[in-house]
């Protein structure tokens, strides 16, 4: 079993992450922490393989904890689960060796995919001390998976490409499902599926605002117009 620690100062979010974790085979929660100091203490008491780590916490933040882990040479992997969507935080996390980065709020499917990829990698490395280039590309670096295999059922690569082209034209401005559906020329129902997928993989973010009559308005915004991650699906 892969031993996990959740580092999250919000009890409700920590509980939600725990419930998500329970639904993925091969993982067990061995510790929880609400601050960096508490996390460091738990690391001294338990063998931990993977940390689900928030950035925004009182005192030292999650990026500082990740840096400390790397400085001490601990054999611990980290998946960021955070509301921090700025390029600096993402870049710092990746430079410090984070194996994945999830932006809140996220769908369970996105966390499931991150944990599943991590489990596959861990099993492969444990069972095979020597890897071929093909195994490395396919199972760890994800270089050879086709775009069609990666797309959820019901999504089309050509349509996704049109959606992405229109999002790039909109630039840093926010947009609604209906607006983008009109630009692309598909139904709002279909567009919700594409935007849900793009949100799941961290390409767009979703903001909810309330008008004068209290009705929520859902607006999307592109996280990074220069994202290379989307290219593997196009």
TrEMBL record:
Q: Does the keyword Nucleus apply?
A: no
**Localization terms from the record:** Cytoplasm
One Gene Ontology cellular component annotation?
A: cytoplasm
A Pfam family cross-referenced in the UniProt record is: Response_reg
Positions carrying 4-aspartylphosphate are 54
Q: Which InterPro entries match?
A: 2C-system_Tx_regulators (IPR051271), CheY-like_superfamily (IPR011006), Sig_transdc_resp-reg_cit/mal (IPR024187), Sig_transdc_resp-reg_receiver (IPR001789)
Gene Ontology MF: a single term: DNA-binding transcription factor activity
Q: Which residue intervals define the domain Response regulatory in the entry? A: 3-119
Q: Which UniProt keywords apply?
A: Activator, Cytoplasm, DNA-binding, Phosphoprotein, Transcription, Transcription regulation, Two-component regulatory system
PANTHER family attached to this UniProt entry = TRANSCRIPTIONAL REGULATORY PROTEIN DCUR-RELATED, TRANSCRIPTIONAL REGULATORY PROTEIN DPIA
Q: What is the protein's name according to its record?
A: Transcriptional regulatory protein
